Amino acid sequence: MKTTLIKHLMMTSMVRSAMLVLLVLLPMTVEAQTVLTLDSCRAMALTNNKQMGVARVKQEVNADLQKSARTKYLPQVNALAGYEWMSREVSILNNEQKSVLSNMGTNASTSLQSALAPLVSQLPSETQSRVAQDLSQFAGALNQVGMGIVDGFRTDTRNTIAGAVTVTQPLYMGGAIDAANRIADINVEMAANALDATQQSTLFNIDHAYWQVVSLSHKQKLAESYVELVKKLQSDVQKMIDKGVAVKGDGLSVGVRVNEAEIALMEAKDGLALSKMLLCQLCGLPVDENITLADEARDDLSEYANTYGLTEVSIETATTNRPELKLLQNTIDLTSQTTKALKAANLPQVMLTGGYAVSNPNTFNGFEKKFGGFWHAGLLVRIPIWNWGDVKHKVSASEGATTIARLELAEAREMVELQVNQGIFRVNEANKKLEMAKANVANANENLRMANLGFKEGTVSHTVVMEAQTAWQLAQSKKIDAEIGVKLSQVELQKALGTLR
């Protein structure tokens, strides 16, 4: 008796200690869990999705390219500078001319002496000497003048420095600038539509992953309830075996059902863990994050049925909102503007030019070894004459691309119409399945109640109870599938309409 009392006191103390530890650890466990709603999952997915980031960067890139295209209307200012060394100097005078100019005094003096020789010979010797001396001085002076002329024509272009500031203003470029700006605008629209398409695809994936987790969580709870049911039946059958009113084979058959239920529970837990990993990855969280979804705690998901009114559905809504159709329309516009830009290559182009230029040496005051500059303005006209049909072939190819884009858009509209009609059908079908699943659950509950009552009274065997339990478990599982199916069909319809936001 004393030993039993001691054991009782020890067990009581251990239970109190275990309860104390649980009370201490429970707040830590609750704090460690992250409770997520569908909206919070969506927000995190949109923030952390890599493709969303790529789409946003592409949008910024196209916005910058749009600003760049606008600058083509404005004048362009450029500064140029250069230095050039040449091994030989540019010469305006040839060697013969240089020789004539350098010796023109000597040549002139020789000619005068020859012409005046008869007269000078009759003069006194002193006068002849004076005349010869004067002619010599005249020749030297005239030679110096000729050498000065030669030096004046020297260019000294072996070292040349030049620079200029130019301004170019396009006046008419055949519509190429307008087409380039329109192309930039279309690219901005395409980037926005691509971002919208990526966003809708991200939301579609996150909604599927979210409701998959909710579905598996409810199925885990259902599996746990089913395990409790079959274990309760196993306990009752074992008591009957102990009393001799049932055979051992009955217990074995129930044991097999218990094992099957526990395997199903294990599979549900594993599936739930994997689904939460996928959801965490889509949300940008660590895959081992301990998360709990707000809708996991809901006992009944039927409130999600009929939340999307079919009166709001129309093909026009889809054709207006679907980003895929907008992208195809952007492609048509883009190829059309490309055609205009190509046609501009066959049209005249007019530009206004002007600026200021300097060089050293310069020729504004002869050839001077110093910087000299000038202002200039002009009009530049380019008129294409013949290019062997190059532009014509390019224009034809671009028009072909436009035709292809129009055909693809027409086909895509037909597919969107089909998707919308299929979405409406699936929503209606999912709602009908849910109503049928609810009715089956009610019947299964009543069937299980009657089987348990008959088993207690001994009017039915344990086999009937097991069949009722299996039917109840299947009905509950179908109801969960139907509830989740309603929500997913609504999401699919919203995506088909392009209204998934």
Q: Which key phrases capture this entry?
A:
two-stranded parallel ribbon, Outer membrane efflux proteins (OEP), disordered N terminus, 501 residues, four-stranded antiparallel sheet, alpha+beta, 11% strand
CATH 4th-level superfamily of the largest domain? Outer membrane efflux proteins (OEP)
Order of helices and strands: HEHHEHHHEHHEHHEEHH
Low-confidence stretches: 1-31
Beta-strand content:
5-15%
Report the radius of gyration as a whole number of Å.
Answer: 49 Å
Secondary-structure content class: alpha+beta
The oligomeric state is single chain
CATH class of the largest domain: Mainly Alpha
Q: Distance between the terminal alpha carbons, to the nearest Å?
A: 72 Å
Describe the structure.
The protein has 501 residues and is of the alpha+beta class. The protein folds into three domains: 32-62 and 173-348 and 384-497, Outer membrane efflux proteins (OEP), CATH 1.20.1600; 79-157, no CATH class; 353-382, no CATH class. It has twelve helices and six strands. The chain has helices at residues 2-32, 38-48, 50-70, 95-102, 104-120, 125-152, 176-243, 248-283, 315-321, 323-343, 390-457, 462-497; strands spanning 34-36, 76-85, 159-172, 291-293, 349-360, 372-382. The strands form two sheets. The protein has a four-stranded antiparallel sheet, with no helix packed on it. α2 crosses α7 (176-243) and α7 packs antiparallel against α8 (248-283). It starts with a helix and ends with a helix. Mean pLDDT is 85; it is low at 1-31.
